[in-house]
Automatic annotation (TrEMBL):
Protein name according to UniProt: Winged helix-turn-helix transcriptional regulator
Keyword Transcription regulation appears in the UniProt entry: yes
PROSITE patterns assigned to the protein according to its UniProt record, in alphabetical order: HTH_MARR_1, HTH_MARR_2
Keywords linked to the UniProt accession: DNA-binding, Transcription, Transcription regulation
Lineage, broadest ranks: Bacteria, Pseudomonadati, Pseudomonadota, Alphaproteobacteria, Sphingomonadales
Domain of life: Bacteria
Species for this entry: Sphingomonas ginsenosidivorax
Length: 152
């Protein structure tokens, strides 16, 4: 009779995927309260505004790929932003089946107001960490992204 290997119990609080999710949710909840209170934006809406501002114009499918948000979340956020006059839809010369989302003048003004506050909130969250720690943390996150993507 062979001995069964000892299985280490799963303690959720020590399980790294859980820790990543928990911390991400904690930060996102704090950010969401700030964006909602100051600008009436949800996190998905802010992410759309930021990605569109970075790119100048982008399809909803590309937004989903860049942000890891599902199609329904991207679509709902886009509809809300178009209704508020912050985004416009325009023809996509690269793909006639889709359109590009672009910021309106009001959307650019909103981004100009939100972006510095987002950076300030980031600075407050990470104020207790040194530049080297933050750089190492970001590098580790990117490595985790790559390792996870490689599992596919």
């Amino acid at each position: 009779m062979t001995a069964q290997p000892t299985v280490r119990p799963l303690v959720l609080d020590d399980f790294i995927p859980f820790r990543l999710s928990y911390t991400s949710n904690l930060v996102s909840e704090r950010v969401a309260r700030a964006y909602e209170a100051l600008f009436g934006l949800t996190i998905p809406q802010w992410r759309l505004v930021a990605v569109v501002a970075e790119t100048g114009g982008i399809s909803q499918g590309e937004i989903g790929q860049r942000t890891r948000m599902d199609k329904v979340t991207v679509s709902r956020a886009a509809i809300g932003l178009v209704e508020r006059g912050l985004l416009d839809r325009c023809d996509n010369p690269g793909d006639k089946r889709s359109h590009l989302l672009v910021l309106t003048g009001a959307g650019r003004a909103l981004y100009a107001d939100v972006a510095p506050k987002a950076r300030d909130l980031e600075a407050r969250i990470f104020a207790g960490f040194g530049a080297e720690e933050i750089a190492g943390f970001v590098a580790m996150l990117r490595r985790i992204d790559a390792a996870t993507a490689a599992l596919d």
